[in-house]
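Re: weekly structure request thread

Next one in the queue (166 aa):
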Amino acid sequence: MLVGDKLTMSQQHSLVAKKANGILGGIKRSVASRAREVLLPLCSALLRPHLQCCAQCWAPQFKKDEELLERVQWRVTRMRRGLEHLSYEERLRELGLSSLEKRRLRGDLINAYKYLQGAGQEDGARLFPVVPSDRTRGNGHKLKHRKFQLNSRKNFFTLRVMEHWN
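Done, posted below.
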C-alpha cells in the first residue's frame, strides 16, 4: 500500500485505478462479445479483485479518490451495448451490480460482525467498545461512539463502521 505524506491513500487509489483500467482495456481489446454473460464474469474474475482487495484498509477518504475508482466500473457498464442511454445507477441496476461504495460498506459491516463475534484475530471488544443494553429491540451490539480530535480519524475503519452499524 502506498501512503502519502499526510497519511492519505490517494497514491494507492491512482495505482489501483491505473491497473484496473489496464485490465479493462485488455478485456475490451481481446473479447469481441459484449454480452452480459461474457462481460460480468470476466470483470468479476479479473477486475473486481484489484478494486476490492484490502479495500477496508485503504478506503477512499476523498470524493475524488472514490470517483476515480467508481469511474472504472462506470467504464465496465458502458461496454454493454444497448445501455448507453441509461444513467450509471440504472446501468448498475440493469446489470445486477452495486456501486463500489456500497460493496466497501458491505465488506466493512461483515468484518465488523466478525470482530464482534470473536472470529477476528484482534479482540473485538477492544476494537469496538459495545454499549451495555438490556433492551430487546435492535441487534444487541450497539457500539460506543468516541470523539477524536483528529479529523483524519473519521476515515478509520472503526468509526466508518460505527455510524452504519448503529
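The chain has a mean pLDDT of 76. The CA atoms of residues 109 and 161 lie 6 Å apart.
Next request, please.
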